[in-house]
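Support case: user asked for a sample of complex input and structure output to validate their parser. Sending the pair below.
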Amino acid sequence: MDNLTCPSCGAALPVRDPALPYSTCAYCQTLVRRAEGNVEAVGTVAVLPADVSPIQIGTTVSRDGIAATVVGRVRWGWSDGSWNEWFLRAADGRAFWLGEAMGMYMLTSEYPAVLDVPGIRNFAEGNPMAVDCTVKAGGKWLTASDIKEASCLGSEGDLPFPTLPGWTMTNVDFRNAAGDALSVQRDADGTTAWLGVWSDLGGLKPGNLRQIEGWTMPRALA
Amino acid sequence: MTEPRAVTCPSCGGSIEIRAAGYTVTLACRYCGSLLDVANEDVRLITAYRRAAKNFAIMPGARGTLFDVEWEVIGALRRRSGSAVWQEFLLFNPYSGYRWLVAADGEWQFGTMLLDRPEDDGMAVSWRGRSFTLEDDAEIETTAVVGEFYWRTARGDTVQGATFANGREQLSRETSADEVTWTQLIPITTEWVEEAFTVEERHMPRAPRPDLAEGFRKAPGMEESDLGFMFFSAMIALFLIFVVQMLLSGPRVCADGRATVEVGAATSAHRIGTIEVRRPWQMVTITVDSDSFNNRWVDLDYSLVNRKTQQSIDAYGIVEFYTGTDSDGPWSEGSHHAETLISQVPRGTYDVFVDAGSHGWPSDPVPGSIDPANPWGSGETVALWFRSCTGGFSWGMFWLMAVLLFSVPGVILWWRNRD
Amino acid sequence: MTKRMTLFTAWCALLVLMSAISTWYGWTPFSDEERSGSTSGYYRGPTHK
């Protein structure tokens, strides 16, 4: 697909993942919806607050031998803090979310089967999720440990949903003793479920990490 | 977006650079100690303080290399559990995340938060195929904070902290209202830490002084707070009370006397000695020993009669001894010895009199009947030997004090273990 | 030292002082000037059951 230009400022709008409908202009923060070659400005995204995340658009992580590349990021804020979620697309077309919190990472891929579990279907229908709700996903038992109401603080790159100010979602993190992770997110577009693992950065075998000023990249990650 | 984030302290106006921008939620101003909420773009003052916490072994801002990774100390906490105090330092590297350095008892530990959870089986946990046994489970209080943290923290925060050990490696579990975190702690030599960071030796939490209390404090269940120390203080106080009562009740001067009473007869009066109270007020103790009667009691009405004023102070005593047999077998009750304590006797010389009357149980012996044990006696008698002394030790007082002293830690202990 | 510990130490000191004062005045609430029990002088016998 040809590179597009921002309908607001005219800057080049690189298409990192043509399957994703939304893209944020890196120059004027305009949120652009792409559909069938057309581009349409749908609003302005908040400027991302400064952070020292080692991930950037273009960073690769490797899982089960498949390399996935970061194509976008959304930053979520809740009552007691904020975190990044990076959207990744693998060569085989699979999508991943890489959640970043407390210097740890949660790499998950879409796992829609779990949406049929009664507890989660109930949540998807708009009901609250019970803490300690336990579900089986991918042969593993996981327990809801963390429920957050989050609102969008900003975005960059290509994403599957509009990240305008006021876009909110409810996120439920499930985990277990083995370090598996299940994240269920409910927003205006519906509910999605993502299954994966908790890891430190080294465990993701990352490439093309961001060079953070004042820090040398550890040799093992460079 | 790559410039480090700097905020202005709303309390003192100082400019503070946020080192872990994007992660940091709480910041304790390094100039004034005020606690700031930096979770969002607008900095919010949580609690204003006038003075920043000082005297940490390592101050935030220090950088050093441990295990081949460069770390920046971004936050420091002083924490306490019972009588133990220690310091914790939050290390940060944007590529490697967070780690902990813990300084306690002059030793260091390096901590890594666990992503997988140890499996709990009561007094021990298993983690990655190894078993760790419970060492300690007590409330931990944060007493001072400086620097930045990725969670909401404040002075006075408390969590329940349990430590599980396998050799020198530990797993620490901290349980707060909304989460449980597990941290692996491994020992790290002081040399390594000092090579990496500038350590202010004089601000290191000191190893506890070895003292008598130590053994008691480390008794099972005692280490979790100041309880052990409380029991120890109560013990010391009770000992002091004992010594004080012993020393202040004197001087002790005694007089001996003897009396014989007939069983079943009317009471008879006997003078059993003269004593002199030389202090303004003193206690007087009268002890009595009898010969070995059975199934009898002797009522003793004592009078201390002041020689000068003829005023009398009365007190009572009894010796009684019974035996019998019932469905549980033979039993006996009572003693051939009794002690009577008279309080607040004013200065003066006193004649000690006793009105003694003895009776049998369940009834008095029939007069004139022949006692097989004493066939030639003119009637059964009980012999009594008295000793009247100035001064005395009130065991009632002593035990009352013991109850008042030990009930405080006792109630706390009960409260803590009431489930 | 915790606040609780300071308070408790003060409590211990108070009790030691009180026991010293009461001993000095020869006073105790547990003296035998009164006959104990309700059976005053008349029927006595074992309380064994």
